[in-house]
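task queued by scheduler; priority normal; single chain, no ligands, no partner chains; default sampling; output format set to structure tokens
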Amino acid sequence: MTREERELRRQERERRRLVENAAREAGRGPLDVPFLLLTLLLTGVGLIMLFSASFPMAYYEGVGPAYYLIRQGIFAAIGVALMLAIGRINYERYRVTGKYVLAIAVFLLLLVLVPGVGRTVNGATRWLGFGELFTFQPSEIAKIGVILYFSDSISKKKEKMRTFQYGILPYAVILGAIAVLMYFEPHLSGTVLILGIGAVLMFAGGIEWKWVVAGMGVAAAGIWAYLTGKIAYNAKRITIWRDPLTNDQELMRDAGYQMRQSLLAIGSGGLLGVGLGKSRQKFMYLPERHNDFIFAIICEELGLIGATLIMALFALLIIRGYWIALHARDRFGALLAVGVTTQVALQVFLNIAVVTNLIPNTGISLPFFSYGGTALVIQLAEMGLVLSVSRQMPAN
């Protein structure tokens, strides 16, 4: 082979490398249409149900019936635009952001505990913000921080994930620090959610089964201690969970009233519901009707059939998310999709379980439905991460 031929081959290899890199940067294919449509459908239905659940309160507050819808709609538009933008970017670029997002989240979790800085609502100090215009929970940023950092770190370790030193200890320290900070807010549901996301990512990353079994044992012990009152955290909620229709008037005026009204709303819906917009519980009877307990209004207005259809949409979104993870180009992409999808799955389950009194009230929102602009923007941005992974899936 002559020198000229070797040079031509070298140039050809370089050209192919540049073309492949450009293809990766631009994305190999379109956004995953089923996942995108399911996300947009849930967001649209969520806005409709939010308007139905919130207009009585908006009317009584004198701010106009569509006040909450307009605010949420603006954030939804921002979130959809952000989702599409994130989905167009090669997800490999998000590797370096994980440690910074996680560091910012820890700083904000510390900041929210500073007297006079964090906002207290219903006895919990979980919010930061500027007046009534903009408020958010640092725990929302912690979720995405854990997903990004864990996905990046775990994807690089491979066989090292089977060791305690590399596969368990560093992630347990991070999750423990976040859990301690959120304990003082207090924010039990957010803590459970973040611990669950971290545990699933570690499992997907390849930790040994003995650590999985040990983790399940610790979780079971914690649940038992909480439900039996060994952990002194909102004992009234445990009492109400055990007997939601108790005759204890003090409890019913306090923690029990919300759960009783939620069950009344669900029972009133029956099979077909009372009709969209015709709920009675939303007229200042059910607390947090447009937020954590919006699913009770869904059950009342749309009935068992309508609520089941909405749960089916969530199930399809979750299944599609895991399908994208299974077909991802590399470990980092797969772990990103697993983390985001697991967050949605856990949050939906916990919210519906609380509203139906399957588990004690932990104060957790329903994705795409509950009122909260910054939370919706972050949720849609996370959907963009999954869409970015879907663009890089190998061709069949």
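post-processing summary
- Residues 38 and 317 are 6 Å apart (CA to CA).
- The first helix runs from residue 3 to 26.
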